[in-house]
Amino acid sequence: MQIKPRQQLLDIWRATARVSYQDAWSPGGLSGSNSISDAEQLLCIMAPATEIPLFRLDQPDTVTDDVLEALKPLGDNLQIPQRLLRALSEYLNRYTAPDGTPVFSGGTYFGTEEPSEKVDQEQLDLDVVDSFSISVTLALAIIGFTKVFRQVVTRASLLRQVEEVERLANRRLTAAMAGLLRSFTVNVFTADSPLGQELVRTVNQERRATHVVVDELRVALREINARLRDDVTIGSGAAEGSELDNPNRLFECGWSWGVVRDAPKIETSADLGEQRNGVAQNAPYLYFTTVALDAIQALSSERTRLLGLLDPEQARLAQSLQLRFELTRSYWATIATFGSGRWPLEDLPWRATDGIEFDYFALLITGMVMQNMQSVRATNANMRRVADVLEELANRSRITRRSTEPETAVGVHYPGLHFPLVGSDALGGPQLQWTVADIAPTLFKRTLTLSGMTTDGPTRSRLLDLSDAIWQHLTVRVIRDGDDHGLWDWAAGAFSYLPDGVSQVSWYYTKRVVDCLVAAAAVINEPTLRSELLLQIAADLLNEADHLYDRELLNGTTTRGETLRVDLERIGAELKRARSVHREKPGVAVAVAEDVLRKLDRLSAARRADVGMT
């Protein structure tokens, strides 16, 4: 891997601190200030600081010199955590209503088909799943940060500030989890409806009789169907479970773009403030399903468990979200890999049940297939098929294949894909739309994740080569000029015929690049991939080295005296080291064993010369 996540994250921290802090933390960016963008800006600092030990900021005495240099605008090792704490407090208060209800509005991230259309403030204030999801991620980072930082705080006023920030973060976390529960949806339809026909078309890669495919699909989804009926009892999606009793129905599940229409309120002992009525379409959106799954995965992460970041009520809500995570992941993985021939996932581009098709959707589905693979012990053969899809998506989206003239494939990068938010006009005003333009960093992260999952050397090598190629694409999209240089996104750097006027940071894009570098650091920190061939070679070499070493101990000590004894002690220590690492690092064991064998051969030759033997 050619990526150097430590240095690159430090460069991003240096630029983020320069742009974000001038006497106080300054939210904003290309899209203006809203509950999502401001959280993304903070997470550019908080994500590495809470997920990579070398970047920790919650223990001032352990902050490294290069981190202090990168965050110099924020002050010294004592000032950095205090000023971050103040910025986090300002964010939590900024997006809390006067009655104490956390605010999860899309704000300036909402758009319209016609830019000139006037959008009512009530529409801009609509809750959106992206805000719920990123609030889960940020709140977990804040709570973990404050739990550790509290232990080194001695000043009473600062301790009160830490406790207040943790209280607000806990409230926002609980409210965000409730919002995700109220945004989950089960969309039930008949096989001969337009939605059913699209679903059957997607899974019927072998072009068999429709009724046969429908019957097989129902069997494949039978367990998921049963759990949706019986186990989903709180939040949205519960009412639709009764419709699944009809054996003639098909369904899809996931997250809508916001709180769904008629979603019941969550009964909880926690104070969430007002649970507003939903207006979102009662049908899943692949993008919002993906971001919701990523947030729920953070709730069950090892860090969350080890630090005890969830209180009992949050743990109860997390359990309900985990159920939805498992069912949704399993559902889409089943659809994407249905049949015995070509997978539907391999039939690019992915076509949703509403008839809209994009390569980007295939990338989102790929992520859910990979999440499912992590839980079902997928074979290396299946991982190779997913790797093929990732490589093809990189080519089709002109990330690893050159684009020499304006073409529609580049639209996914700039201005991005737009899709309507059905139901957003229920309060009056135009129908809103959402824009996504993160195919490159999303593909980068999926590639890194799959490389960490596979145990097949050639596949891992392919994936690491692909990740290097995607990183090269991302590096040319860094903003070069203006105050925001060193951050993203300047799409014209990769596609010269695109508009060249972007000079303001997109925290949406930059945060996703940070996530990729954090994932790259995790891959590097994993144990090396063990080759069975190297393991056998290492074992054979060590057996021979042990035998020759024992022979020298038996035959050499009387003729060479102290010098030989010291040499043999060193060789024995090296052999012991090789034995201790040969299972985890067989390549290292081979190198050490070869060096030991050379030394033993020299000792043997010298001993034989001493007694007149040739």
What does it look like?
This protein is mainly alpha-helical. 56% of the residues lie in helices and 5% in strands. The chain has helices spanning 5-20, 37-51, 65-70, 79-94, 121-124, 129-149, 156-181, 194-203, 210-220, 222-230, 286-299, 302-307, 312-336, 359-376, 380-396, 439-453, 457-475, 507-525, 532-555, 557-581, 586-610; strands spanning 111-112, 184-190, 249-255, 350-351, 357-358, 417-420, 432-436. The strands form three sheets. It has a three-stranded antiparallel β-sheet with strand order 1-7-6, with no helix packed on it. Strands 2-3 form a two-stranded antiparallel ribbon. A two-stranded antiparallel sheet has the order 4-5. Helix 1 packs antiparallel against helix 18 (507-525), helix 6 (129-149) packs antiparallel against helix 7 (156-181) and helix 6 packs parallel to helix 11. The model has no long low-confidence stretch (mean pLDDT 90).
